[in-house]
Amino acid sequence: MNYREILDEIEDILEGSAHLDELADNKQDPFKILISTILSARTRDSNTKLATERLFKNHYTPKLIAEEEIEVIEDLIRVSGFYKVKAARVREVSRIILEEYNSQVPKDFEDLINLPGVGTKTANCVLVYAFKIPAIPVDTHVHRIPNRLGWIKTTRPNQTEEELKKIIPKIEWIRLNRVLVRFGQQICLPNHPKCDVCSINTFCAKDFSMEIALRNKKKKLSINLD
Ligand code: SF4
């Protein structure tokens, strides 16, 4: 099985869509996708979604956010966590986009990572989800899963990005994050992966099915002995 077929196989068993996915599918503007990605740092998808919806309910543009009271922004995005730091970043990024980019989010990786609070992952997310430019955003799922599958052997996200770029055909880069994020949320969970129902467990170097079966057997035994 090649990478394309494995990604197809994974997609077949996934349900719903992740937050950035929804924004991209609904053709939301790149500014909203950029701000939402900044809000997503160290928080769950559901909180990012709520904070994004609250913020953009006001039809904010870069100009409106740049001119907004910081306390108002803090209050609107509070649910995303680290809201004081994020509010300051969101307002500063809006100001720069307004003043230096004529209110248009840049499509260039170097321009994006020069924005405050925008790192490699966020810049790559904006390229992929806002502009459909091939890139590989590496978050916790995209780092963990290819290592479990045995595709790569890396310890740091930047290594993961480089290694994945060498082996995954460029045509698959755009969907890679989308597929692996949902797979990591639904099946290949960080602590208790559901290997027994995983559609690609025969291609995985780290199939934990046996361990899960053994653990369940032990649990059953201890219940019977109680
Ligand atoms: S078999 Fe388990 S560890 Fe491997 S990809 Fe599937 S869920 Fe993840």
Question: What does it look like?
Answer:
With 226 residues, this protein is mainly α. The protein folds into 2 domains: 113 residues, Hypothetical protein, domain 2 (Endonuclease III, domain 1); 89 residues, Endonuclease Iii, domain 2 (Orthogonal Bundle). It is built from 13 helices and no strands. Helix 6 crosses helix 7. The longest helix is centred in the middle third of the chain and has 18 residues. The model has no long low-confidence stretch (mean pLDDT 92). The site of iron/sulfur cluster (SF4) has 14 residues, from helix 10.
Write the layout of secondary structure elements.
Layout: H1 3-13, H2 19-25, H3 30-39, H4 45-56, H5 62-66, H6 70-77, H7 83-100, H8 109-113, H9 120-131, H10 140-149, H11 157-167, H12 173-186, H13 209-225
Helix pairs in contact: 3-4, 3-9, 6-7, 10-11, 10-12
The protein binds iron/sulfur cluster (SF4).
Salient structural properties:
226 residues; mainly alpha; Endonuclease III, domain 1; Endonuclease Iii, domain 2; 13 helices; 62% helix; globular; binds iron/sulfur cluster
| Mean of pLDDT | 92
Task: Note the gap between the termini.
Answer: 46 Å
Q: What about the largest sheet? A: none
CATH class of the largest domain: Mainly Alpha
Order of helices and strands: HHHHHHHHHHHHH
Quick structural overview:
This protein has 226 residues and is mainly α. The chain has 2 domains: 19-131, Endonuclease III, domain 1 (Orthogonal Bundle); 137-225, Endonuclease Iii, domain 2. It has helices at residues 3-13, 19-25, 30-39, 45-56, 62-66, 70-77, 83-100, 109-113, 120-131, 140-149, 157-167, 173-186, 209-225.
